[in-house]
Input
Amino acid sequence: MRIALVNPVLAEGGAGRAMVHMANHWAAAGHEIMLFSFEQPGSRPFYPLHPAVVLTNLALEQDSPNLVASVRNNIRRFQRIRGALHSAAADAVISFIDTGNVRVILATLFAGIPLVVSERVHPAHEPIGALWRLLRRLTYPLARAVVVQTTDIADHVRSWGLRRVHVIPNPVIALTDQGEAPQIPQPYVLAVGRLRPQKSFDMLLNAFAQTAAQHPEWSLAIAGDGPLHDTLTQQAHELGLAARIHLLGQQSDIGGLLARADIFALSSAYEGFPNVLCEAMAAGVASIATDCPSGPADIVEHEENGLLVKNADTAAFTDALNKLMDDAGLRQRLGSAATEITQTYDPEHVMARWDALLDNIMTSHQRSSET
Output
């Protein structure tokens, strides 16, 4: 089968990692895989790519200083996406991420290509603007299927009137220690993610500050880059903890950081399916997660394989940090139980669900073509 995969950005993050894993899995199985991004020529995925995968960067990242430029640039984007997918002669197309999905749907109108689109965060909480929201509601029914990662998101998306909604979580792969991670004073709390408001790292810093006096030996490390780097750096100084809060920037060896972490912290305001939380649990790290929409409540069983705390509640997160910092035995018990997540989200099982979906839409497409 020839499969085209489209993701606007293949940089660090859950969506890029999930799509690269899908590409690698299908390429290894002998399918012809074409991977498209909207990035500039020469851009490479953050995650290792199977040598058989053909990567094409469509160079769609253009500034639109006014409405006329925006319309012109979007027409060019549609034309370039349509031309690329037509040339690919794919049997099926899978597209990730809200606005990218809309562009791919519009670009493939009347092309006769079975198309699956996937939301990668909870759409009720990810701002994309009124026009894009309207276009999403109008275009998603044209896709053969819409894939989301949790039942909570599925319920929300079905409220738009969509029928062909499928829940497929991300696979969980235990990360290896590559020996390249920076050395952080132990014990330490680790968080990973883009430095943007969604991740609520400001709340995490405040919660850590509340534990600092009682636990002077502990550090906090955050791996990831983004627009809030300077703001969080300033916050760490204002809290008087600049020497104990380590903003590490983008890191390739997350496995190495997890191998030495004592606690993992997910402070997000919302998610789609938090890969890094699963990776921390697979590594046996005692984890704390906000009960945010969506994902953590599907993954963490409170006080069984981790701690689940009220969303956006600094005091609750502080209490959870104190609880784990004070009790090495509890950290060991929760971390040990957490490793079972690799069975729940086994990559082969997850990809079997994608295989079944593709088989289903291809069969449906063939039947409709024959009538």
User: Anything to note?
Assistant: DSSP finds 14 helices and 13 strands in the chain. Residues 188-343 form a domain with the Rossmann fold fold (CATH 3.40.50.2000). The chain has a mean pLDDT of 94. Residues 23 and 362 are 18 Å apart (CA to CA).
